[in-house]
Design goal:
18 strands, 500 residues, 9-stranded mixed β-sheet, 2 domains, 41% helix, 19 helices, homodimer, alpha+beta, 5-stranded mixed β-sheet
Chain lengths: 500, 500
């Protein structure tokens, strides 16, 4: 009855004065204006500045340059994304491992070429020289070698560290998540490779972030192509890294870089130009098979043969519509030895959203004498987060808790009764909250439900307690009804769609 | 038919020769003898040594001192543990955040007393001075202050870093998980505090790691007790840290430390001795309320009053049987200001498995002028992992994948057919694997199912393909039956207990 009276009063007040009591009973979300700067679109700027907030105590209150906190809303999105991605990995029978955040410095030495300067070193405090991990691939190779594994299909989701200039690379942080899936082991050609492409396709489909295409190429085709176009062998890598820029630069500019900066014969550049325009599917495989000039090169021939096998398997997987054999795809990393791939969103200028390839020699660096061939893929989850965060903002935010029921008092006090009720709900695995106030305002508690998206309230007042009932209130519809004490749990479970 | 013939053959061979073909088709688990040293009971020894495996390439193949990899089996256990713990946090309406693995060095400075020497610093590579986080509490306080939050109920599960000597502290690593739950905000006395104790109780119950007790005390009672026993105020802290050793040392030894090392009047020590022997529940609250000497001290009076309120709420939560008001509980950290608690397993010598308390002044250090009272609890998950890993070993290990179906060929080849079938299963969200071999041995594939605990196999042979059927085989019972192609998915889903 108290409840009814109070709700009637609330309605009256709302009609008269507009919304009453804007303050929620509990505010567990950072206020908009208080959010960390990194949250806003001008991310890079914020990350770039060394200025933080001075707390008046003489020191600066901030996270380190290029790093950020994840607030509850970002974490809720992150959790959804990881759940989907891990779901795909598990669907494919993958195990998972974790490695230390730091490695011996020498473990990382010589693995990243010029980028080695971006590695974070730990201070020498006596003992080993340590560095923060730069990616998850080198620790994976170290793990496989150290444990003398012959086979491993694992995923690894964790943060990695690069002392990049966060101002120079948009949306790039110095501390960011990687989400890797790799298959180590000696297997028949292209089967694990095809599964990696299939996994990318499944993940991007499940994430519902828009239409995508997985570009695929083969390092041996690139090498063969460079050879038959007349690139001197010592220039393969530098020309390859110029080709790698075709996703951001026009051919004319890439050609210029090849000829003017890298000293390539213009005729060779033009021959490359005719190849890198080619893209397709099995039709392109067949076209290249007809290219006698290219096929005269052993490397190219092996690569094209591998692509035919791969496309047979991709056809069996029924994902030909999401892949493109693209001769302009080069990928920056040196360690790739076979197929390479990169997924991009169609019509979006966000860069690649996943990428990987085969690297058969990396484990061998750690286990002299034997090596274990590997193929893998890394999902660019930070870009996925950005897309989904923007979507969430546009849709009015996401819930940051999963609370199903708020135990509410219709009047002052009743603390022990409320705690006993919420305890009963917890015991029944119903996600529930109660205000931490002896005399919580009824309207504040109701508004906390509305604001936090808590679907039901369980309301107690003196008269309800006397009658041995609880009032269940639906937050959205404002419907409410009395339920005898011993039926509260089954009724709420039924309302929440739980099995009896 | 091929399937039947092969299985009959296998049976015959097994009867004649014992188990045939011990090698599984795919081995994704590290072999027992290849497991990292850290896995075995002699953990500390392994972590302590600076020796690693030399790969013959002139450098040492190991993880940094005091750190370790988590292998798939450890990760499977870790995932189960986190799922249960996070389930409890979410049941209580908690949000989650993540903070960078490093903080500005000055953020950590002056927060850990003598232990500050254990902080890992990053090298000075130009820019800010950074340190790895030492716990999750200081980053939490920094986050609350930086975002000017008035309220936050959050959990945070992440690794922290301490340059401790891993040899000195058994089972202690330099990189280890913490699992924290904290409530920040100005609320009525003891309500959030009671919820923290309730959460410890729920988590330890859900983890099923044995009978436990949550010891509870109050800093103000300790201070009051010291005062009325005649401890000079400047000795409160050092005497408190002596009391803290009562869980590992006999009273006689603690008394000796107080008197001989810390110069306490023996009569004062004896008076303390009579108090720290006391433990109980509401009966102890009442006993202390009758202690006129103690009640004459304002601090003790406030503390005892708070304990009465707390025990009222713990009674409402119905967890009086798992808590003990224990005057010998002191807790090491300086920053506690109110209730403190620590959970221990009854009859197990593993030390505390959870602990926490109220710290009302920490946020204020980061936000001069205002502070936000906090109370929280940290679950000692590494100890939980150890207990559950030992249990798993005793029970023959845990599954490291969730694979439900292995797509198997009954004869050579059939790669495209197998890939098409496994792809159909993935599309139906059935967790499935296929061997990465063109000519996988049938028996090896069957044995992979047995070894990895994959409950079903979907078997394809030429004749099955011709008939348009798949043979479904139950790994445990070895029963098998033919299913038409278009009924494979619904039949498997039904067998796996999925809803249609």
């Amino acid at each position: 009855e108290e409840v009814d009276k109070l709700l009637a009063l609330k309605k009256e007040l709302e009609t008269t004065y507009g919304v009453v009591d804007k303050k929620p009973a509990k505010e567990t979300k950072p206020k908009k204006e208080d959010k960390p700067k990194e949250k806003k679109p001008k991310d890079d700027k914020a990350a770039e500045t060394e200025d933080g907030e001075n707390n008046g105590g003489g020191f600066v209150l901030k996270t380190p340059k290029g790093s950020r906190d994840y607030d509850p809303e970002q974490m809720a999105i992150r959790e959804q994304v990881f759940k989907k991605i891990v779901g795909v990995f598990k669907r494919h029978g993958a195990e998972t491992i974790e490695t230390p955040v730091f490695e011996l410095k020498e473990t990382l030495t010589g693995k990243y070429g010029e980028d080695s300067k971006l590695i974070y070193d730990l201070a020498d405090q006596g003992g080993e020289q340590l560095s923060l991990r730069y990616d998850l691939t080198v620790p994976f190779a170290r793990y496989v070698a150290m444990n003398k594994l012959k086979q491993l299909k694992r995923y690894h989701i964790a943060r990695v560290y690069r002392r990049d200039n966060p101002a120079m690379t948009r949306g790039r942080y110095r501390e960011f998540y990687q989400c890797d899936f790799d298959i180590a082991g000696e297997y028949d050609p292209m089967i694990p490779d095809a599964e990696c492409v299939k996994i990318v396709s499944e993940i991007l489909t499940d994430l519902e972030i828009g239409k995508f295409v997985v570009k695929i190429n083969h390092r041996k085709i690139l090498d063969g192509m460079f050879a038959v176009c007349g690139v001197p062998e010592e220039k393969f890598r530098t020309i390859c890294s110029a080709v790698d820029k075709l996703d951001k630069m026009a051919w004319e500019d890439v050609r210029k870089e090849m000829v003017e900066e890298k000293g390539l014969d213009p005729a060779a550049a033009d021959r490359i130009g005719t190849y890198v325009k080619l893209a397709g599917g099995m039709d392109l495989v067949e076209k290249l098979e007809q290219d006698a000039n290219l096929m005269a090169n052993k490397s190219a021939q092996d690569g094209v043969k591998a692509m035919r096998t791969l496309f047979d398997y991709l056809a069996a997987f029924n994902i030909l519509d999401t892949v493109s054999f693209d001769l302009s795809l080069a990928r920056g990393l040196d360690y790739y030895t076979g197929v390479i791939y990169e997924a991009v969103l169609v019509g979006a200028e966000v860069g690649s959203i996943a990428g990987g390839g085969r690297y058969d020699d990396l484990v061998g660096i750690f286990s002299k004498g034997t090596t274990i061939p590997c193929v893998g893929v890394s999902i660019g989850v930070e870009r996925v987060f950005s897309i989904l965060e923007a979507r969430a903002r546009a849709n009015g935010g996401v819930r940051t808790t999963e609370t199903e029921v708020m135990v509410i008092s219709a009047q002052k006090g009743l603390m022990a009764e409320r705690l006993a009720l919420v305890s009963k709900l917890w015991a029944a695995n119903i996600k529930s909250e109660v205000a931490y106030k002896l005399n919580a305002k009824f309207l504040s508690q109701i508004q906390h439900c509305e604001k936090s998206g808590i679907p039901y309230a369980a309301v107690l007042g003196e008269s309800e307690i006397k009658k041995g009932v609880v009032v269940i209130r639906n937050t959205a519809t404002k419907e409410q009804f009395e339920v005898p004490n011993d039926e509260v749990v089954p009724r709420l479970r039924a309302l929440l769609g739980r099995s009896a």
